[in-house]
Design goal:
The protein is of the alpha+beta class. It has helices at 3-16, 40-43, 62-70, 88-96, 106-111, 124-131, 222-227, 236-240, and strands at 29-32, 37-39, 56-60, 73-74, 85-86, 103-104, 118-119, 136-138, 143-148, 156-163, 166-175, 178-185, 195-202, 208-214, 216-217, 232-235, 249-257. The protein folds into 2 domains: 3-71, Zinc/RING finger domain, C3HC4 (zinc finger) (Herpes Virus-1); 119-257, Apoptosis, Tumor Necrosis Factor Receptor Associated Protein 2, Chain A (Sandwich). Strands 8, 10, 11, 12, 15 and 16 form a 6-stranded mixed β-sheet that branches. The protein has a 4-stranded antiparallel β-sheet with strand order 9-17-13-14. It has a 3-stranded antiparallel β-sheet with strand order 2-1-3. The structure holds zinc ion (4 copies). One zinc ion binds next to helix 2.
């Protein structure tokens, strides 16, 4: 962008700021008798123009509306360092997954456990290492064996895993007649598809169930991942065949780069 274009964009953003709520206006943009603009949310709460006390018109500012749909807006985390410029349509979507935005702890977000911590994406790992020591393991290799104890219907298990120098959050659950294993990558959403995971179990007779899937993003909803069948899913009756005599489920897992 040239200096002139950048200056013009700033000028336009100033024009698009609603004088009442200070948010950027999106169509419909309302007008008063003297040509002042107002967002429609504020318009319905006011009797007359907040700038000149003039009456409102029933017409909209179509030329400003059309500029509003084309201009590039900064992310709301601009003060925290986000430099993204996006259209009004895409900026809201970006903001929900912006690395500079406040994020919830994955234990709260994915497993609904009680943790009120919030912080930027790059500080999640440090928080998990410090505050969830009992449910966080560091693994030199992405390949490991472990056990789920006393597996039964409606049971949920979870663990944070630090491997390949990244933080992953694994959720295992039994729901209805299926067993689910999902690995969430806790980092920028666009990097989640760079990893895959494999979940393998064996019966005493040596039958093996081994399935793999692409890692899910921490920004995805865990219930959607399960409901839409995106994660590893095995019939619960097959999983039961792999139980030890104590009802434990030994399994092998591998998280790897694609
Ligand atoms: Zn407003
Ligand atoms: Zn006015
Ligand atoms: Zn952002
Ligand atoms: Zn936490």
């Amino acid at each position: 962008m040239t200096d002139m274009q950048e200056g013009l964009r700033h000028r336009l953003l100033q024009e698009l700021e609603c004088p009442v709520c200070m948010e950027y206006m999106v169509p419909p943009i309302m007008l008063c008798n003297n040509g002042h603009n107002l967002c429609c949310n504020c318009r319905v709460t006011l009797e007359k123009c907040p700038i000149c006390s003039g009456p409102f018109l029933k017409v909209r500012n179509l030329s400003l509306e059309s500029l509003a749909t084309e201009t590039l807006y900064p992310c709301r985390n601009i003060q925290r360092g986000c430099t993204k410029l996006l259209t009004k349509m895409t900026v809201k979507c970006h903001e929900t997954e912006c690395a500079f935005d406040n994020q919830k702890c994955p234990f709260a977000k994915i497993s609904n456990t009680r943790c009120n911590w919030v912080g930027s994406l790059d500080t999640v790992r440090r928080h998990v290492e410090r505050n969830h020591k009992g449910s966080c393991v560091q693994r030199v290799s992405g390949k490991f064996k472990t056990v789920l104890h006393n597996v039964s219907r409606s049971q949920r298990y979870y663990q944070a895993i630090i491997t390949l120098d990244d933080l992953f959050y694994v959720s295992w659950r039994v729901h209805s007649d299926a067993f689910y294993c999902a690995v969430f990558y806790v980092g920028p959403q666009e990097n989640a598809s760079e990893f895959k995971y494999r979940f393998s179990i064996s019966t005493k007779d040596g039958d093996c169930y081994s399935l793999s899937a692409v890692s899910h993003s921490y920004f995805e909803n865990v219930n959607d991942v399960v409901r839409q069948g995106k994660c590893v899913t095995i019939d619960y009756s097959d999983v039961q065949r792999c139980f030890t005599d104590n009802g434990d489920l030994p399994f092998r897992m591998e998280i790897s780069q694609i």
